[in-house]
Structure formats: structure tokens, C-alpha cells
Amino acid sequence: ARVAERMQRYDTNHDGYITENEFMIVHAQKVTDFVREADTNKDHKLDAAEVQKAISEKKGTLGKATEQNKD
What digits encode the pLDDT tens for the residues 5-27? Predict the structure, then answer.
């Protein structure tokens, strides 16, 4: 199920293959979203404190999701 979901997300032209370009597009959006969320002072730059806070919050979220998936 996870592979099918990822294929659907990454295979943007739905030809059954994931190209390097398709992979890069999806990850570029993830990076953009991460920076926008982590940039708490909205100066369009991340300092060490913003990165640390964002990573800590992500780990907490991932940990909760992992625990929920064990059921």
C-alpha cells in the first residue's frame, strides 16, 4: 500500500514510472514547506534555533504516527 501511495504521489504524469525530475519536484515542495514552517521570524532564512525546533517538532510528530501505526 505504501509503495502504491508513493508511486501515485511521485509519478506526476501517471505513466507508471518516476523520473528524476518528478522526484525532485516533490522533494522541492517538501523543502519549501519545511522552510516556510520553520522560519518562525519570517526573515526567509533559518537559524540554528529554528532548524532545531522544527526537527524536534517533526520527530515528535513522526514518533506519534509510528506509535499509532503499531495498532
Answer: 999 999 999 999 999 999 999 89
Instruction: Tell me the whole-structure pTM to 2 decimals.
Output: 0.59
Cβ atoms < 10 Å from Cβ of 34 = 15
Q: Nearest Cα to 34, choosing from 62, 58, 66, 63?
A: 58
Q: At what angle do helices 20-38 and 2-10 cross, to 10 degrees?
A: 90
Q: 69: Cβ–Cβ under 8 A, 6 or more apart, which residues?
A: none
Per the CB < 8 A criterion, the answer to whether 38 and 54 are in contact is: yes
